[in-house]
């Protein structure tokens, strides 16, 4: 687990470090092959030079989008059909309800309606459906 560790007794003082190192070793040892295969596959699809400019958080944002909902962006990129429009009373009720939601409730609504629980890093204008760009529609 660490250099010279075999000759070091575990005590109350170093117990936390021992447990952390043991857990890390057991977790990593069990998935090394799978992780390496995932990384190889990822780099077959995405050029590693393109990814190297991102830190882990930025890469997650590019791949998965954001979990924070910008309500103005959502509203500004919503399409209305069937006689509905931004000023329609039902639409005003809808947005008033969504404004009262916390972010988790907004994400659940978004997932229920679109099948995705995150917003692309470009915002709602880049929301995608199974056949390409697809704006949120009421």
């Amino acid at each position: 687990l660490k250099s010279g560790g075999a000759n070091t007794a575990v005590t109350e003082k170093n117990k936390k470090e021992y447990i952390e190192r043991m857990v890390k070793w057991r977790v990593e040892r069990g998935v090394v092959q799978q992780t390496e295969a995932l990384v190889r596959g990822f780099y077959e699809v995405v050029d590693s030079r393109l990814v190297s400019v991102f830190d882990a958080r930025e890469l997650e944002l590019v791949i998965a989008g954001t979990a924070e909902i910008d309500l103005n962006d959502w509203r500004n990129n919503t399409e209305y059909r069937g006689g509905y429009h931004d000023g329609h009373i039902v639409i005003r009720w809808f947005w008033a309800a969504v404004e009262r939601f916390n972010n988790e409730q907004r994400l659940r609504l978004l997932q229920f309606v679109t099948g995705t629980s995150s917003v692309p890093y470009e915002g709602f204008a880049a929301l995608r459906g199974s056949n390409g760009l697809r704006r949120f529609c009421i």
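The two ends are 56 Å apart (CA to CA). DSSP finds six helices and four strands in the chain.
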